[in-house]
What we know:
The protein has two domains: 10-137, Impact, N-terminal domain (Ribosomal Protein S5, domain 2); 141-206, Alpha-Beta Plaits. 29% of the residues lie in helices and 31% in strands. The chain is built from five helices and eleven strands, in the order βββαββαβαββαββαβ. Helix 2 packs parallel to helix 3 (114-132) and helix 4 (153-162) runs antiparallel to helix 5 (187-197). The two termini are 23 Å apart.
Amino acid sequence: MGETLDSPYLIPAGTHRVQETIRRSRFITTVSHAPKSDIAHEFVLRTRAEFSDATHHCWAFVCGPAGATTSVGLSDDGEPHGTAGRPMLTVLLHSGIGEVVAVCTRYYGGVKLGTGGLSRAYASGVKLALESVATTPKVDRTLAVVTVAYESVDAVQRLMKEMHASVSKEDYGSSVRLECGVPTPSFEALVSAVADATRGTGSVERIPRPVGPSPDSP
């Protein structure tokens, strides 16, 4: 079976960063697309390395549809318990944006904000970032493999581009094998178009999804 979604939602179109200074502490909030928890954790590590001299790197993620709590995570990273990760996660869950990770990097400025001040500061950074991040609709895709002869590759790749199919892997052997994600409403049209472009020699086959729990299952 192909990938399916219960309902459409928005996801970040890329990585976005904002900055605020609150009572001399500098808060740098970075958000990005994170469809799986391992991708979110990798993003946290990259951001931490980028600002390795910062005081704190607090984070939260929602790796699923907007508002879903099936795959979430958070960290206060040394701030008082509940003053950073939880308010960040709350903002993410109510933002209408899914598959999103946020890292709020803090450079302490010498003035204590108190627990309420910290909660407001971390939530504010995420709100500001999400208000200005570019988004795109999550596309319901079917995983497929397209197999064609070498002489048909250029024509078929143009077809796939026109149908917004994203290629994840290319194998060049006796024939060309392209693993891709095809927008589900366009799947049957792609099957027909590939057959026409290759005079029936090419094929488009669904890739069965792995059986068993998702790596993000709680």
